[in-house]
Amino acid sequence: MATYSVYRYRERSEREIEEEAVDHPDEYVKSGLSVWAFIVPDFWSFSCYLWLQGAIALAAHVLWFFYPLIASAILLPLGIFYSWIGNKWRTEKLIIRGYKKIGEIEASSKSKAVKSFETKT
Predict the structure, then answer these.
(1) d(CA 43, CA 25)
(2) CA 56 – CA 66 distance, rounded (Å)
């Protein structure tokens, strides 16, 4: 079982909700290693709004087309590092974007964590 931290966008007034077209769903971040950050660090970083980390990983992938041996020596440690510290970066970015941690839930998958947390609240 993994622990998922639940983050919710800051509380807004009814007026702000009506004026703002973008809905901010709750975000669930798994504690520990991120498998997707290891497998595809560039796409994972961009999907989590981690622009600098994504650009670094993308540059390593582009380098792979020209110097595969050197890029492989960079990509493997980079993937390990991203998987190890990636979820910490993600939580910090959510806090910067205005999210607040509202709880934690134990679940075997993200979808089960979502269902369990929604029935709990």
Answers:
(1) 21
(2) 16
Sign of CA dihedral 59, 62, 66, 67: positive
pLDDT tens for 27-69 read: 999 998 999 999 999 999 999 999 999 999 999 999 989 999 9
User: How is residue 115 written in tokens?
Assistant: 């269902």
Task: Give the span between the Cα atoms of 55 and 45, in whole angstroms.
Answer: 8
Contact 29, 117 (CB under 8 A): no
DSSP one-letter string for the chain: -EEEEEEEEPP--HHHHHH-------EEEESS--HHHHH-HHHHHHHTT-HHHHHHHHHHHHHHHH-HHHHHHHHHHHHHHHHHHHHHHHHHHHHHTTEEEEEEEEESSHHHHHHHHHHH-
